[in-house]
């Protein structure tokens, strides 16, 4: 099952004092379905507001365009002043890949947004970072040089022709910079000292820019220069990291304050470990850390898995447990409680109603299934049974990785446990997806059918919904079938005390495959596209036949 695409948008608007104007701009964003407004941060001195929202790419681009349009209507740059560099009513609007989408794809969405802004709003647009069309335009500071006041002359220069929109000065709205960039993580590491000097020393060790090389004392010594008179720098350990040391009176400690500008080059846990190494060499210790703002889920999962593997413990545990390990390992809860539902972007985006079944208790799920409602039905139950089968396989792998005397095999079993977790999570998503697919058919059936055009629209909608409702249980079959490889391996190599668990897992996987197959056949008979129906029925029958073979083998292996 494909991961849902999610991007973040962080537009900066040149208004930080008039709350009515700010509210009208953010209302445009909140008015787009599928977008979640996460943060609004106005600054009076800078006269600038930074807004953060997330959603699916198309929804985010729609929201960004509406916000830029509203800002153009309400903000007059000819009257603007503030401490922060700026060149437009919407000064900069970066798109940031969060989940299920590459930087290249995100850059394409940035260009779609920029074209709309240039064509429909008559605002000159420059592309930067990963969306830049010219190497000298990657850096925002380069594009913004001279700010709003320089635009009239700048736009006359061929070298500064905008990427989108006419090269004509828009006195009211200025120009806008749109692009795609990596997620920036603001991260502070806490030290058991009050010394800003020592905190800065650690920051210099860690940050990419490092420190200036000096003779003797690294702080007061004479600067060493090259033949051209330029100060020689000793690079720091972490790429794409900016850092300084400071003292926080509120906490009574010094911190190393970092911006991780490319988490693919330096991850959160790598920055933490680099600080620990530097701190220890200087006779101090790290007591904890804090995340400022939000963080993508994958950042926390990567950190949790890193620390589990460092302990030679299986990383094939639940997402919740992995996040807990990350929080405890880096002391993210030292200064204040760390609530994943508030700090992780994907969790902030989660709609409580969108996963009602998997979030319910076993009793609630059983009662809802047993009620007079037609959903959840057999498809959701099949997916849940399949999730239990994969979970049992992961459980045996985890138990085997921790078995006394098998220490040298922990990584082998950890890898299998991780595969089980992936299958379990995919099948759990299908529990709710099956109900949504059924509801989509009902919604299509309820469409108006008065005119010929309405009848055609309704017929097409029913066909599309029915194809979807057929493909979902087919995905359940595929996911449940994949768990046999894990279960078979555990039957042959896993902890011998858990063979019965493997057998139950195989029975669950078979029930999931055959249960979902019934749903595939039921929905496929109503499809008008017989080519689609016959193809999926053929593939489903093949999976079912192979399932019976696997289940028989595994039951034979685990039966004494």
Features:
seven-stranded mixed beta sheet; 52% helix; alpha+beta; flat
Task: Tell me about this structure.
The protein has 560 residues and is α+β, with helices and mostly antiparallel strands. The protein has 18 helices and 13 strands. The strands form 3 sheets. Strands 1, 2, 3, 4, 5, 6 and 7 form a 7-stranded mixed beta sheet that branches. A 4-stranded antiparallel beta sheet has the order 11-12-8-13. The chain has a two-stranded antiparallel ribbon with strand order 9-10. Strand 3 and strand 4 (48-55) form a beta hairpin. Helix 1 runs antiparallel to helix 2, helix 14 (378-401) runs antiparallel to helix 15 and helix 14 (378-401) packs antiparallel against helix 17. It starts with 5 loop residues before the first strand and ends with a helix. 44% of the residues are buried.
Distance between the termini: 37 Å
Overall average residue pLDDT: 92
Task: Give the overall form.
Answer: flat
Radius of gyration: 28 Å
The tally of helices reads: 18
Q: How much strand content do the residues show?
A: 5-15%
Helix content: 40-55%
Q: Please state the structural category.
A: alpha+beta
Q: Give the oligomer, counting copies of the same chain as homo and different chains as hetero.
A: single chain
Largest sheet: 7 strands, mixed
User: What's the number of extended β-strand segments?
Assistant: 13
Low-confidence stretches: none
